[in-house]
Amino acid sequence: MPIRYLDAEAVRQAEAATGDLLTGGTLMRRASAGVAAVILRELRRTGGCYGRRVGIVVGAGDNGGDALHAGAVLARRGVACTAVLLAPEKAHQGGLAAYRNAGGRIDDALPEGLDLVIDGVVGIGGRGPLRQGAAAVFARLTPAESGGPLIVSVDLPSGVDADTGVVHDPAVRASITVTFGVPRNAHLLAAPACGRVEVVDIGISADAVTSNADAAPRLSSLTDAEVARCWPVPSPSDDKYSQGVVGVIAGSARYPGAAILATGAAVTATSGMTRYVGTAADEVVSHYPEVVAARTLDDVGRVQAWVVGPGAGTDDDALTVLRALLGTDLPVLVDADGLTVVAEHPELVVGRTAPTLLTPHAGEFARLAGAEVGADRLQAVADLATRWRVTVLLKGRITLVADPTGAVLGNDAGGSWAATAGAGDVLSGIAGALLAAGLPPQLAGAAAARVHAHAADLASRGAPIGASNLLGAVRPAIRDLRDTLSAG
Ligand SMILES: NC(=O)C1=CN([C@@H]2O[C@H](COP(=O)(O)OP(=O)(O)OC[C@H]3O[C@@H](n4cnc5c(N)ncnc54)[C@H](OP(=O)(O)O)[C@@H]3O)[C@@H](O)[C@H]2O)[C@@H](O)CC1
Ligand SMILES: Nc1ncnc2c1ncn2[C@@H]1O[C@H](COP(=O)(O)OP(=O)(O)O)[C@@H](O)[C@H]1O
Ligand SMILES: [K+]
């Protein structure tokens, strides 16, 4: 099953479904025990618990309650805890009593020389940026990467919106985020602000969320094993045709780069056959002799899916080609220049019944949707996909792939070295090959994004890369993912 993410409303529904566990305080006891366990593990890993110094920043609600209860556990283990109460009169009473009983200190400011700071300012009840008091406390801390304390956020980094993942300014930037039961949208949408996310089991389940009352987009992500399992593997009876032939229309004789990258990615991503159609045929074949190339659509053999657009121009000829391809019942991925044409002629794709995958970056998305992506990327991509009844893959560090029902699969690249010219051409080649193999467009897009991100990571290992390096690492990335199956 894909990993499911919930918005704040759905989390509250899942908590309420536990009945007595919520009202009797069991959920909070489990949550705070989970936070304490993660912190104790971290302290032990870095030299032990006794005498270590931990600061706790406590807000006005239950998030602060979690932090205080966790502080009580730490104080009983000999950790020197100092809490700052941002709103003393509203601080969680039970948490405060437990913390005081365990010998925890309360002060007006955090002391110097802390090993770790617990961010218990706000969780799913938070709205907008950190308020001034909390902002001042965090502004005084040296960042963890410069030798300052590790920041462990309870549930969410405060100042990050649980539903949209908007990272307000200011917001806490966590090294570790400990959340409860089911991850929240923000743990994927704002992954870089969350650091490592630990999900503690407290006995709540996403299954208890029955209705999507606020009609908010549903967000999930594939596991590595799911990506590996969907990757096409030739069977004993397969031949080069039976696995799905992908056709690529990209680049030009003058600008062959996009053609080479997109076609090369298609060749690399799956077995079987790749066709190329366009004026860069000679350049493509000189790079990839296995590609069957033609100059025009009239000369091309059968394909099972098309990739059209990268570097393919936006003139009348491009429109004619798009009209011809989108008029078939074959799966079509439209990228780059193709999207510019589609933005002018939405009738080419709106409501198209054959699988249709549009892969815009933010600028192309704005042209298609007629408005900027805005801060709420999840809602924006789901809206366009449902409005046009096609699958839309919005590129970026967090790639979001929305299907026509508004369900979204997200992928955190885990790093940003892929933000390099031509990387998008590689993504379209991979996703197109998966479409030709018969994967539905949302799965094709999300699986391609995972492999693309892993390839960037493998190619880079901390140094800059170009799209050709990324392309060269696609095969090892697929192998790595498939290895997780035998390892599991
Ligand atoms: N229910 C349960 O059993 C369980 C709950 N759990 C935990 O409870 C958390 C949710 O607790 P919650 O509902 O009390 O809200 P929470 O996030 O603490 O915010 C509280 C108040 O903060 C304020 N505030 C708002 N924005 C702000 C800002 N930007 N900057 C500063 N302050 C701001 C605002 O109050 P105001 O000051 O406006 O009166 C708001 O009402 C959840 O994330 C999880 O950690 C777990 O233990 C599992 C079991
Ligand atoms: N900040 C980032 N972190 C990780 N991946 C990114 C980032 N920005 C872009 N990417 C990925 O790199 C690729 C860039 O695609 P695109 O913008 O179309 O570039 P191009 O048109 O030059 O090929 C996409 O796969 C996108 O998801
Ligand atoms: K928090």
UniProtKB/TrEMBL annotation:
Binds 1 potassium ion per subunit. GO terms for molecular function: ADP-dependent NAD(P)H-hydrate dehydratase activity; ATP binding; metal ion binding; NAD(P)HX epimerase activity. Its EC number is 4.2.1.136, 5.1.99.6. The keyword NAD applies. Residues 223-481 form the YjeF C-terminal domain. Its cofactor is Mg(2+); K(+). GO terms for biological process: metabolite repair; nicotinamide nucleotide metabolic process. Keywords: ATP-binding, Isomerase, Lyase, Metal-binding, Multifunctional enzyme, NAD, NADP, Nucleotide-binding, Potassium. It catalyses: (6S)-NADPHX + ADP = AMP + phosphate + NADPH + H(+); (6R)-NADPHX = (6S)-NADPHX; (6R)-NADHX = (6S)-NADHX; (6S)-NADHX + ADP = AMP + phosphate + NADH + H(+). It comes from the Bacteria. Residues 11-210 form the YjeF N-terminal domain. AMP binds at residues 395-399, 424. (6S)-NADPHX binds at residues 62-66, 123-129, 155, 258, 311, 361, 425. K(+) binds at residues 63, 119, 158. Catalyzes the dehydration of the S-form of NAD(P)HX at the expense of ADP, which is converted to AMP. Together with NAD(P)HX epimerase, which catalyzes the epimerization of the S- and R-forms, the enzyme allows the repair of both epimers of NAD(P)HX, a damaged form of NAD(P)H that is a result of enzymatic or heat-dependent hydration. Homotetramer. In the N-terminal section; belongs to the NnrE/AIBP family. Belongs to the NnrD/CARKD family. This is Bifunctional NAD(P)H-hydrate repair enzyme. It comes from Gordonia insulae. The gene is nnr.
